[in-house]
Amino acid sequence: MSATTEQLERNFTHRFLTSLRRINSPDSKTTTTHAAGLVIRRRSLRIKRAAYSSMARAAGSHRAWTRALLSRARSQRRRQQHDVHPNYIPPAQRRKSSVKRAAAAGREMGRAGKLRGLVPGGSRMEMGQLLEETAHYVQCLAVQVRVMQAVADHFSSSSSM
Amino acid sequence: MEPLSGPGARPGPTADETALDSVQFGDDIRHLISVPTENASSFTALLELPPNQAVELLHHRSPQSTRPDSRHQQPPQHFNAGLVTFPTNAALIERAAKFSVFAAEEELNNGSNAITSPDANSAPSSSSANLQKVVKAEPAEAASCPTVAAKDENQRPSSKRKEREKKGKASSKKSKSAANEDSEQLPYVHVRARRGQATDSHSLAERARREKINARMKLLQELVPGCNKQEKLWGNGGGGQWGVSSFLHLVTVFPLFARQISGTALVLDEIINHVQTLQQQVEVLSMKLAAVNPRLDFNLDNMLPADSGSLMDSNFPAMMMPVMWPEVQPNGNRQQYHQPLWNFDVVPQPPAGGWGREDGHNFMTPENSLLSYVSPADSASLNSSQSQLKMEL
After folding, report:
1. Interval B321-340 mean pLDDT
2. What's one GO BP annotation on this UniProt entry (chain A) (predicted)?
3. pTM score, whole prediction
């Protein structure tokens, strides 16, 4: 493991645990009206989003995919906060542009299009940059999975004690 | 000034080494230089012709080392100070090209050696600054492949400058790969491009781009496990794989180069697969964490890279608490439930027991809901809900 990977891991772990703490303790947002299964689901979604955000912040904003991820998270959060109603339909332009971009990524047939769909911000990059960002993204994903696994193991193991 | 010493000891560019005693150039240059003596204003001329001049200097210096001739001592002084608009760039380049025929590789090497020393000492600093700026670009290439400089100077100066102004990485890669090709051929190189490839700037740029992309693919292959077995056709250097059109039109090239492309396609498939796998793992782990979680005080600021070990260590004081909890809980029959549920059962107790955190109260509410769900239910129903969640995901 190189020095940058270690630093990334440390950074990510710190942020991730901080956000976990924030999620688990005083949630004013978790309503008790939902069934318990849904609570787990919503919490898992929140944890997943927190994991990606903290990884994007830990990796630094000189990478295009981190910027794209963070802006996506920000817009998602804004959308969540503003429209309380679950059946809210986003304004037409936003939908159109995202659909167009997705279609463009899908129209470019084959593997490259799929890869663009997977990597955040991939539809805007050209091929060379896409490959570079993919490499970095894969590295960061590996770190993320490792840390999350360790955290989950730790908590589940210590609960058995 | 002083007589020329061996190739190693080079005085500044103002001194003798400007190769006016070279076979072809000597008379021309002397004639040219004698006109503007110590003309400082010709710096602008210098600026206009950096590549030319570098070329000249390259070849001027090198023969100095091999043919020490103290014939032209005084004009060389002015060479850098008052430099000159050369009459015809093209004519001189041709000369330089011809000269390169005689300049075998060692001379170019000497030339590159010579270039580094003038960087240290030169009287007219600005001219030397220009020279350094220009000449440094040359040694970068000359050091790696001596034949490249000869190749480069054959191109027109404008195109060469344009290409150098492109990402230097691309140009050096391009020249390196071209040099690799050329080294198989004869030493005196007039080859302008790779064999059977066009030289216009478009195709050169495309080639550079393709090579950049292939280099990145190789890096990716190393990252993604399981790609190394597909060694199919990377040895070609990827030059022939992509169609003339842009890389994005991968599909159009598939039928033509089916056998060759399959290597890259497989690699891309592997990469996509790997990314999808990782993302799925994140999903699963986040769900696991959501199920396991709300227990401890996450006081883990001092994290070491070895996660599992350090998690244990730094969390030790916090772990005292959960150890106490199972003793506190009233219902022994809770233990039959699914393991993660322990946490839900256990949690409401310590806040009541005065955990000391201000958010201890709020812990009750979500967990109470879970508890109320859990108590009438069976572990079976909970399992079904979890499997249901998995299906949704």
Report:
1. 45
2. regulation of DNA-templated transcription
3. 0.47
